[in-house]
Design a protein that fits this description.
Oligomer: heterodimer
Number of helices of chain A: 2
Number of strands of chain B: 0
Structural class of chain B: mainly alpha
Distance between the termini of chain B: 36 Å
Shape of chain A: globular
Low-confidence stretches of chain B: none
Largest sheet of chain B: none
Number of helices of chain B: 4
Strand content of chain B: under 5%
Order of helices and strands of chain B: HHHH
Largest interface: A-B, 13 and 11 residues
Largest sheet of chain A: 5 strands, mixed
Number of strands of chain A: 10
CATH architecture of the largest domain in chain B: Orthogonal Bundle
CATH architecture of chain A: Roll
Low-confidence stretches of chain A: none
Helix content of chain A: 10-25%
Number of domains of chain B: 2
CATH class of the largest domain in chain B: Mainly Alpha
Chain lengths: 140, 424
């Protein structure tokens, strides 16, 4: 059994293990980052730490302007990134044994695996893939 | 020297005797005569003298008698142109007297005939004039008769026309009476209209008052509705606050769950509490959302009510205007009906006056009719009289003609007398 925080990106439902989440922060003061572009929409002061805020729907290429005012602050194991979502849903308890690899025709980006829940499918976010894509963008 | 015939005879006898004696005396002295023939000779001489004297004398006498006779005959034939002339002017005798007397008779006859002739001329002229005049008069009388005939006919036509006029005017009088009664009916109707319009006016006024009252009530209701909606909006503010609290609670529950997970087995109970709190927050949010949607619904309905109310107020306003107009219309009707009533009354009055005038006119026309009838009769009488007169005139003309003819024939008769000797 594992606790998963579900959230929406565009019209899709994604999930992230709460072990990877340090805290859900609401309406943080967003600071401007010089030379920032695209997915980096600013930085916040989180308990004295300056953390970068990444617009996840834009990074993963989801349409729609809807952004939740609640951001996910990841743990330091995940570079302490702050991610925006289209909408934070809830925390659910899932059997991780039911996790399946994404099907061949599945074209959603950064998905570690899929799991059926309550007649919908939750895509588990692959944070390593996210970091890899960010590195691609910012190294270039 | 006047010598009567008897003396002339005696003188002749004496001459013959004297001549016999003288011859007797002379004969002896005459040679050649035988004494035996002297007696015979003297007798012969005496006879010769006597024959000569006798013949001269008797010739003169017979000539005078013949002249007288022929003069008498001439006079008998009417020739008065010549005077009777006899010989023997040297020794006038009874024939001269007779001639003189005949001349005197002829002169007086001549003057008589001349007088008669001139009078006859004058009579003829006068009778011709008379005839002409009487013919003219006859013609004039005929003309007059014709004219009076026409007058008579005209008078008849006039009488007919007057009768027609009387009939027509009686119809007019009836029409005027009808107008009068119609005008009275109109006046009565106008009275009724006036009454109705007044009550309508009152009703319109009371309905106007009611509308005004309803309008003010509707306006106060609208105000109350506005207040109500403002109160509802306050409720939705509170609900927003509650919603915010619920969202915060939800966030806190999420974070608490995360913290509890991090605490591992020790945080399990806390995670359960956090889950319950989250559920509470969710149901709060749901309820708040329901309240919000309910408030929105109420607000929407309230707005609808408000707009309906505004519409009602608008309609009320237009109803009020309509009632105002109705009121004005009734006032107008009242005024018009009053005008109509007064006009109809005056029409009725005038019509009554006209009726009396029409009666007077009818009487006058009747009078005219009578006069015209009298005229017609009189004209007919005149016509008859004129015709009689015309006939008399013709008779008179006839008489004048006869008179003229008579004077003409008299002239003819008188012309038979010849007063002057013909020039040729």
């Amino acid at each position: 059994m594992s606790l998963i925080l579900t959230y929406s990106l565009g019209d899709d439902l994604y999930g992230l293990e709460i072990d990877a989440i340090q805290e859900i922060t609401e309406n943080p003061v967003l600071h401007y980052v010089p030379r920032a572009e695209g997915v980096l929409i600013g930085s916040i002061n989180f308990h004295g730490q300056i953390l970068a805020v990444i617009d996840l729907p834009t990074l993963l290429g989801f349409a729609g302007d809807q952004r939740d005012h609640r951001h996910l602050v990841l743990t330091s194991e995940h570079r302490s990134l702050v991610l925006t979502t289209s909408g934070v849903e809830r925390i659910v308890n899932l059997e991780m044994e039911l996790l399946q690899p994404p099907p061949e025709e599945h074209d959603r980006p950064a998905v570690r695996g899929v799991i059926d829940f309550d007649e919908t499918t939750i895509n588990l976010l692959d944070t390593d893939e996210v970091i890899k894509q960010l590195e691609v963008i910012f190294v270039e | 020297m006047r010598i009567e015939i008897s003396y002339k005879f005696i003188i002749g006898f004496i001459v013959v005797v004297v001549s016999g004696i003288l011859v007797n005396l002379v004969v002896p002295y005459i040679e050649g005569i035988e004494p035996e023939f002297r007696q015979v000779f003297s007798i012969l001489c005496s006879l010769v003298v006597g024959l000569i004297i006798g013949s001269v004398f008797s010739r003169a006498f017979a000539g005078n008698i013949r002249r007288l006779t022929s003069a008498g005959d001439r006079i008998r034939r009417g020739d008065l142109s010549e005077d009777v002339k006899v010989d023997g002017n040297r020794f006038p005798d009874e024939t001269s007297d007779l001639a003189k007397a005949m001349n005197q008779f002829q002169a007086s006859l001549r003057s008589l005939v001349g007088d008669i002739r001139s009078i006859a001329f004058r009579v003829a002229g006068s009778s011709q004039n008379l005839s002409g005049t009487s013919q003219e008069m006859s013609a004039s009388a005929q003309e007059v008769a014709k004219t009076t005939d026409q007058m008579s006919k005209g008078a008849e036509t006039q009488a007919e026309m007057v009768e027609e006029s009387t009939r027509l005017f009686k119809e007019v009088a009836i029409s005027i009476k009808l107008v009068a009664s119609s005008a009275k009916t109109v006046a009565d109707s106008a009275d009724l209209t006036l009454e109705t319009a007044r009550s309508g006016n009152d009703m319109a006024g009371s309905s106007l008052d009611s509308i005004r009252q309803v309008l003010s009530e509707a306006e106060s209701s609208g105000q109350q509705m506005v207040n109500f909606i403002a109160q509802l909006q306050k409720i939705s503010k509170f609900v927003e606050v509650i919603n915010g609290i619920a969202q915060k609670t939800n966030l806190l529950a999420l974070n608490a769950t995360i913290e509890a997970a991090r605490a591992g087995e020790y945080g399990h109970g806390f995670a359960v509490v956090a889950e319950e709190i989250r559920k509470l927050a969710d149901s709060t949010t749901t309820s708040a959302d329901e309240i919000t949607s309910l408030v929105e619904l109420i607000c929407k309905e309230g707005e609808q009510v408000q707009s309906s109310m505004a519409q009602v107020i608008d309609e009320m306003e237009s109803g009020r205007e309509a009632a105002d107009r109705t009121n004005q219309a009734f006032s107008e009707i009242t005024r018009n009906a009053e005008g109509t009533r007064s006009k109809a009354s005056s029409i009725a009055e005038l019509a009554e006056q006209q009726t009396s005038s029409a009666e007077q006119i009818t009487r006058a026309i009747d009078e005219i009719d009578r006069v015209v009838s009298d005229n017609a009769a009189a004209t007919e009488q005149v016509s008859a009289a004129t015709q009689e007169q015309s006939a008399a005139m013709e008779e008179m003309a006839q008489s004048a003609k006869e008179l003229s003819n008579m004077s003409e024939s008299m002239l003819q008769i008188v012309k038979q007398f010849k007063l002057v000797k013909d020039q040729d």
